[in-house]
Amino acid sequence: MCTEKTESSAVLSRRPETKKEMADAIALQSYLVGLFKHLPTLNNATATVTFTVTNFVDILTTTNGQPKTQFSFDVTNSGGGRVTKYTPPLPVGSPPLLKVNNGYDQPSSPGVPLNFQYIVASGINGATFSPIGVDFVLRAGNQGSSAYSNFPPPMWVFSNLGLIFEDVYLSYLGQYDFYLIIRRQDGAIGIIDPCILHEN
Fold it and tell me: What is the value of pTM for the model shown?
């Protein structure tokens, strides 16, 4: 089969000729190398969770402390069966959380690392949201590893498509509060606070 090489492909494939082109190419290469160093490990399984905003609260305009945006979520990819949506029976009325097993058939620490992809779907009246910040906190009374050890900040990757991060799973005793800061298309800021529970 014969293919014709277009002018644009020829431009992209040729070697830089001027000093400026060479400097730009080196700068681009350095940027890409730095970017990929911060991507979660690609051979990990990836679980995808989709959040839907049901009642948005703008934290920049409210005067009632720090109310959080209400939401629902669905596990749209379980990461090989490791992530489930779980509602604790007690206390009554507890919100659902994400329960993660360690990738083995018995209690073990550490577990197998797992990537998460969080997607924020369109909310009320078709409003769109993008994640712009995140924080993890080890829930009081838990004996798990520190939040930043278990969810390394260099592995947090933001994009218009959502947030990708790595759960290293250092301990099966950990229960973590997770604060996801989202921005509506008009610039309003809200906070979503799901929980991640290491199951075994």
Answer: 0.70
